[in-house]
């Protein structure tokens, strides 16, 4: 599973809890995109979460 190169956000794990309170495993995947960005003046493809893209932490090529 990919992680955000900027903030390190990745998948989160927990439990699905039914009405009878039985628990099964659950995984929440974060919204991560492969994006071409400027890194040290050169274009490079990195994984970035959409919250980092929206906040302007990444300069796209």
Automatic annotation (TrEMBL):
GO terms for molecular function: structural constituent of ribosome. The keyword Oxidoreductase does not apply. GO terms for biological process: translation. The keyword Ribosomal protein applies. Keywords: Ribonucleoprotein, Ribosomal protein. GO terms for cellular component: ribonucleoprotein complex; ribosome. Coiled coil: none annotated. Belongs to the bacterial ribosomal protein bL28 family. PANTHER family: 50S RIBOSOMAL PROTEIN L28 (PTHR39080), LARGE RIBOSOMAL SUBUNIT PROTEIN BL28A (PTHR39080:SF1). This is Large ribosomal subunit protein bL28.
């Amino acid at each position: 599973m990919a992680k955000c190169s900027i903030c390190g956000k990745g998948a989160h794990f927990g439990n699905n809890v039914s009405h009878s309170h039985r628990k099964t495993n659950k995984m929440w995947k974060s919204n991560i995109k492969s994006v071409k960005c400027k890194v040290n003046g050169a274009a490079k493809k990195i994984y970035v979460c959409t919250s980092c893209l929206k906040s302007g932490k990444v300069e796209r090529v």
